[in-house]
């Protein structure tokens, strides 16, 4: 059985580590460098770091910050936020970042995602799809940090896979930061619809939630709150499952 | 086991971010020095040849910086232990399909070829990217105490074909079996990234610095 991929997803705002609830109200968690050092100790196999204000502020990624971050990071890193041009991707890869996640720019300019995949290879490009429900309860993809509806979610996922995205980072906006568990119907629907690995994100409150998403076809699970908070009062405590706990999450036939 | 700090010379020739290598060495309690000139290489007692990117450009950068004769003197003349990482491992070979007519350093009898999807038992992605278990093919101080199934993080589109099978130190699978590491005398090359492979990488780096 392949080893399940369990990925801490860290949100960054103005150089600080934050955590949102339903993409809103970012609360301060700590220093991202310190978090990365702890995940080194805990032997996380990969990290996702998302700058949640780069696109909204219309600016490119903070390269100085990321250069420090990758230097501290003894594991592969996927970065997203403000990735709007091929030049930006090239500069991110030169810093030692392994994968680049694209969301808003792919929604605004579908060709951009395709050219990024052509230029840098599928295994470098992750399509990030933030999913919410519209007034009629239909699943839609959103760009700009959940602020702008972009179209039916399943179509966005299929289109991203068609143009060559190597993985999909699939985030449920309404589950984000709630600890209520992943949107398993969403995970199942997308994992069935696309041939590429799906990383489920949004809602994990326990390792049991992770196991459920993997069982429903997610190739990997990403989580924020689960790995930065501890206990009912959400005390900040960076944590990560050990080898045995990870092995126990593998889906059963 | 030696505990006094060792200074590791890292060849710096403009192919990628060396920050995580520097930090990993520091975490192990040793020192590193980024070497951009032949004079700095000449002082090395332990050498890392890192790098990510294009084989031809890597060799051109080494040549333009005048580092090739200094590296040859260190590695072939003085037998200083050297660890090639990813592109650095590839440059230790004689050639690569990525480099065309540009010759490698030629320390190891190997040629790098692009992954051949038609050889694979199933559909494979190129570049090969991800964590893989490796299998050791001979005992080595580089992997001492690393347990039966060390895992490492790989990112590469080309892999080695060794002219001398006894040089193959470790293998892994990506569609078919490929060389993950080679070793000949004082020359060690790893296709994966120890600096991105947390505890497995730390163990390997510690072995290289303290025992090789």
What does this structure look like?
The complex is a heterodimer of chains A (about 250) and B (about 210). By secondary structure, chain A is of the alpha/beta class. Chain A has a single domain, classed as TIM Barrel, CATH 3.20.20.70. Chain A contains ten helices and 14 strands. In chain A, strands 1-4-5-6-7-10-11-12 form an eight-stranded parallel β-barrel, surrounded by five helices. The longest helix of chain A is centred in the middle third of the chain and has 11 residues. The termini of chain A are close together. Chain B is α/β, with parallel strands linked by helices and about 210 residues long. Chain B has a single domain, classed as Rossmann fold (3-Layer(aba) Sandwich), CATH 3.40.50. In chain B, helix 1 links the parallel strand 1 and strand 2. Chain B is globular and about 45 Å long. Classes of the chains: A alpha/beta (about 250), B alpha/beta (about 210).
Name of the CATH architecture of chain A:
Alpha-Beta Barrel
Largest sheet of chain B: 8 strands, mixed
Major sheet: arrangement of strands of chain A: 1-4-5-6-7-10-11-12
Under CATH at level 1, the class of chain A stands as: Alpha Beta
Shape of chain A: globular
CATH architecture of chain B: 3-Layer(aba) Sandwich
Question: What is the subunit organization of this protein?
Answer: heterodimer
Beta-strand proportion of chain B = 25-35%
Give the structural class of chain A: alpha/beta
Compute the number of strand runs of chain B. 13
Structural class of chain B: alpha/beta
SSE ordering of chain A: EEEHEHEHEHHEEEHEHEHEHEEH
**Low-pLDDT stretches of chain A:** none
Tell me the CATH topology of chain A. TIM Barrel
Taking all residues together, what is the mean pLDDT of chain A?
A: 94
Number of strands of chain A: 14
Question: What is the domain total for the residues of chain B?
Answer: 1
- The share of residues in helices of chain A is 25-40%
Total helical elements of chain A: 10
């Amino acid at each position: 059985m392949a080893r399940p991929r369990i990925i801490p997803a860290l949100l960054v705002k103005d150089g600080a580590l934050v955590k949102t609830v339903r993409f809103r109200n970012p609360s301060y968690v700590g220093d991202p460098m310190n978090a990365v050092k702890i995940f080194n100790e805990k032997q996380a196999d990969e990290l996702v770091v998302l700058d949640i204000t780069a696109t909204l502020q219309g600016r490119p990624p903070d390269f100085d910050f990321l250069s420090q971050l990758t230097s501290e990071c003894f594991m592969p890193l996927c970065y997203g936020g403000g990735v709007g041009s091929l030049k930006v991707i090239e500069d991110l890869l030169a810093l030692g970042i392994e994968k680049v996640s694209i969301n808003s720019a792919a929604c605004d300019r579908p060709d951009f995602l395709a050219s990024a995949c052509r230029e840098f290879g599928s295994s470098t490009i992750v399509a990030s799809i933030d999913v919410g429900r519209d007034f009629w309860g239909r699943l839609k993809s959103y760009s700009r940090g959940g602020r702008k509806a972009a179209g039916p979610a399943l179509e966005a996922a299929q289109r991203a896979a068609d143009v060559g995205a190597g993985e999909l980072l699939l985030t449920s906006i309404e589950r984000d930061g709630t600890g209520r568990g992943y949107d398993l119907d969403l995970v199942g629907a997308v994992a069935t619809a696309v041939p590429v690995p799906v990383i489920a994100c949004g809602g994990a409150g326990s390792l049991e939630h992770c196991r459920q998403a993997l069982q429903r076809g997610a190739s990997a699970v990403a989580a924020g709150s689960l790995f930065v908070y501890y206990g009912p009062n959400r005390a900040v405590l960076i944590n990560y499952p050990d080898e045995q706990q990870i092995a126990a999450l593998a889906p059963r036939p | 086991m030696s505990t006094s700090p060792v200074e590791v010379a890292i060849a710096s020739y403009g192919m990628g971010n060396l920050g995580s290598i520097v930090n990993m060495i520091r975490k192990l309690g040793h020192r590193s020095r980024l070497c951009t000139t032949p004079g700095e290489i000449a002082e090395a007692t332990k050498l890392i040849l890192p790098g990510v990117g294009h084989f031809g450009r890597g060799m051109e950068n080494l040549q333009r910086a005048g580092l090739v004769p200094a590296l040859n003197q260190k590695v072939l003349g003085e037998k200083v232990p050297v660890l090639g990482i990813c592109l650095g491992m590839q440059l230790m070979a004689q050639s690569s399909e990525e480099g065309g007519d540009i010759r490698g350093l030629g320390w190891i009898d190997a040629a790098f070829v692009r992954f051949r999807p038609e050889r694979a038992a199933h559909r494979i992605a190129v570049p090969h990217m991800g964590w893989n278990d490796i299998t050791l093919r001979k005992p080595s101080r580089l992997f001492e105490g690393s347990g039966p199934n060390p895992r490492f993080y790989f990112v590469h589109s080309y892999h080695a074909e060794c002219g001398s099978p006894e040089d193959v130190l470790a293998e892994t699978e990506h569609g078919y079996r490929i060389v993950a590491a080679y070793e000949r005398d004082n020359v060690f090359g790893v296709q994966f990234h120890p600096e991105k492979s947390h505890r497995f990488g730390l163990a390997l780096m510690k072995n290289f610095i303290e025992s090789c």
